[in-house]
Design brief:
149 residues; alpha/beta; 5-stranded parallel sheet; 5 helices; globular
Length: 149
């Protein structure tokens, strides 16, 4: 028997945590599996020419995307009763492209949105707009919430 997959985009924002919470609750209700995906752009390994090899931008903090995703999943999962296990996937590149590609094997794609501007603007820009146009499964867009997780 095929397990249903609910794919959710996570970027660490309050909006993506709301989407993750919704996806976990829906998966618990459906008996589905959740896949949480975080996409990021790799930071440059070399700083453009600077005298004496000094970084003109100061010390840049190093990101740990897998740790960021795991912590977000851990915190949100703890708030949902009977939460299923969650597969965590970190990819390098454009979030919209990776989510739409992964939507080929999902039953549902869940994304959060900051909800800025008019509906027309929302539908013409950003990850949510791209996913709504190109995903190969139904897409749930979770609106912004007034409370933080």
């Amino acid at each position: 028997m095929r397990t249903h997959v609910i794919l959710v985009g996570v970027d660490g924002s309050a909006e993506s945590r709301a989407a993750l919470r919704w996806a976990i609750a829906e998966a618990a209700h459906r008996g589905a599996r959740v896949e949480a995906m975080l996409a990021y752009h790799r930071e440059p390994a070399v700083v453009p020419a600077a005298p004496m090899g000094l970084n003109p931008y100061g010390e840049m903090p190093r990101r740990h995307p897998a740790r960021e995703l795991h912590e977000a999943v851990r915190q949100v999962r703890a708030t949902v009763p009977h939460a299923p296990d969650i597969a965590e996937c970190v990819v390098i590149g454009d979030a919209a492209d990776h989510l739409t590609q992964a939507s080929k094997h999902a039953e549902l794609l869940v994304i959060g949105t900051r909800g800025r501007g008019a509906v027309r603007e929302f539908l013409s820009h950003g990850v949510a707009a791209h996913c709504l146009r190109h995903a190969e499964c139904p897409v749930v867009v979770v609106p912004p919430r007034s409370e933080s997780p």
